[in-house]
Amino acid sequence: MNKTVNINLAGIFFHIDEDAYLKLQRYLEAIKRSFTDSQGRSEIIADIEARIAELFSERVENDKQVIRIKEVDEVISIMGQPEDYLVDDEIFEDEPNASYSKKSSSSTSNRKLFRDTDNSYVGGVSSGLAHYFGIDAIWIRLAWILLIFGAGTGILLYILLWILVPEAKTTAEKIMMTGEPVNISNIEKKIKDSLENVTETVSDVAKNVSESVSSAAKSIDVKKGANSIKSSSRTFFDTIGDIIMFFFKVFAKFIGIILIIVGASALIGLIIGLFSVGVADIIHVPGLDLVDIANAGNTPIWLISLLAFFVVGIPFFFLFYLGLKILINNLKSIGNIAKFTLLGIWLISIISLIIVGIRQASEYAFDESYIEKTELPIMANDTLNIRMVGNDNFNPNFYRNNHSFKLAHDDDGNKTIYSSDVDIRVKSTTDSVATIAIEKSADGRSYEIARERAKNINYNFDFRNNTLLLDSYLTTNPENKFSDQEVDVVLYLPENSVVYFNSSTKPFLYYRNYEGNIISRENTNHYMKILFDEAECLDCPEDDFNVNVDTPGLKINKEGVEVKSEDGSLKIDGKGLKAKSEDVKVNIDSNGIEIKSDN
Amino acid sequence: MKIENTKAQMRKGVLEFCILSVLKDEDAYVAEILDTLKDAKLLVVEGTIYPLLTRLKNAGLLNYRWEESTSGPPRKYYGLTETGKLFLKELNTTWSELHNAVTIVTSQKTTKK
């Protein structure tokens, strides 16, 4: 059983099997493509359709009979393959009829990109491109080889072109492939032609005008002349239009090339990136551990990279495709299914990335801390020394860098995260004994996780001979990820005790005193006596009083004080005092007191 | 150089001349022209003729009129125009010259052998 289609061929009605119909349609389509409009395509096609209708009606005995594929095949074998329709223009180049040859020369067929499978090594892409660019295929092939060495991008590009560029199957396509290029000399010729036309008509008109002057009755001729100049100026403007179109096309091609370059390089970069991340993930490149630990959400890296690849890569692919489409008129469409699939993948990737992002962000949603308190046997009048201790493995230099999480191996060779995010604060207490509070805090997706991670922070201190040795680093197991772990060491010191911070503690102290923190960076290397909510330096040199105020109204500096206003001025310095108002002057100096009044 | 190309070029070169010759005495529609050319084995497939007819018509050598057909679509009857007749006359001369020339050249070669 076969489905049939009703067709109207040159005004005659036929029943035709669907497969036969499709074959006939393809055939007519192929023939249509072997002609250009200037050759009288529509007329030729109409003639051919009429002939096919005639041949069909010879084969159909009554109205009910259906045309089958057999009849179509017969007709095609009578009519010939599309290439048989081609009239080789070269043979007829020396056409005697001038008007005709002019017409044919103006129909410059555009070169089209096809794959040349006749001269192919792999898919005919290179020889096709060679035809398209009018160079020898060897250069294109060399370029491919270079590109293949360039991280294999050539292979990808080749495959893309292989898929997207149609093969030159018929002679028509093969001729189009090597078609005449639109070049500067052609334009030149065109301009010359049209200019000649214009000068001709101008002289014609001049002649006509002179004739019309001699005889008023011949005024119709002027009209004629005007008409002819009109029509030839139209052809002139047509030519200008053609030239503008040509430049527009060149511009479009230029944009197309840019799009291709941008799209291709972005894609290539992304693919290289994806490959290297993927490969590094599989073979466990050491540097990647850091990324893995920073990745608190535990989403696989390859998945994130793949999603990112799709999100960024698909738009660039479309750019690339658009560029190709601009450049190559007869580009095979990648098809709606592929387009929508890509669009779908893109949307899904974006949504997934957002979800991953939210997950990642939510890892820092809860910030919890865990506090351990220990008493230190420091009473009033005792002196406490404080020093930082490093570790050969972690932070040996006491260099404190906020939020710098690093990965190192401990003495047993286990991987450990360490950070120098340790802060020291000092508060006074009315208790008789000092207390040290270690406040560990970390982030997590939930309260429990954050608290668990805070608990898992290792931080140690040691107290010997009135000396407190504080670790300059905190460590935690890599399982806990980088979740903003930090340690606050809060020292509660009884009043009247003395504390001496070694200079090693400097980076871990606050810049300023605030909120009960009474020891800042300035106070290191000094004996500080703890008072109520403040500390007194016992061995600090007196600070130089240093004030420097310099405003139009008031100046205070080493030399003295100067006040100026509209009504008067006052100056106090080492020499004495000078005061001036509108009417009164007062001077006090080594000479004594002088008061002057204008009144 | 392929023999097929040369053959096709030879055939196509004389095809226009032959089409004009077929129409020399009376108008004919495409199928009739085709029959004559196919009988003479000058044409293998029919497709070739359509672009040629359109060319000749566009060049002003041919014109056509429509005639209704009983068995199919209306037919285009082609005929020679005045220019076409002149053109054909000139081609005839050229052809006989060419024929002579070719005969002389080819027969000379055979006698030499």
From TrEMBL, chain A:
Highest rank taxon of the organism: Bacteria
A Pfam family matched in the record: PspC
Keywords on record: Cell membrane, Membrane, Transmembrane, Transmembrane helix
PspC-related transmembrane region domain: residues covered: 223-364
Membrane-spanning intervals of the chain: 142-165, 254-280, 300-324, 336-358
Protein's cellular compartments: Cell membrane
Record-annotated PspC-related ToastRack domain positions: 410-542
Membrane topology: Single-pass membrane protein
Domain Phage shock protein PspC N-terminal: 111-168
Xref: InterPro entries: Phageshock_PspC_N, PspC, PspC-rel_TM, PspC-rel_ToastRack
Protein name, UniProt field: PspC domain-containing protein
Automatic annotation (TrEMBL), chain B:
Pfam families reported in the protein's UniProt record: PadR
Gene3D superfamilies assigned to the protein according to its UniProt record, in alphabetical order: Winged helix-like DNA-binding domain superfamily/Winged helix DNA-binding domain
Record-annotated Transcription regulator PadR N-terminal domain positions: 19-89
InterPro entries: ArsR-like_HTH, Metal_resp_DNA-bind_regulator, Tscrpt_reg_PadR_N, WH-like_DNA-bd_sf, WH_DNA-bd_sf
Record's protein name: PadR family transcriptional regulator
Originating organism: Flaviramulus multivorans
Lineage: Bacteria, Pseudomonadati, Bacteroidota, Flavobacteriia, Flavobacteriales
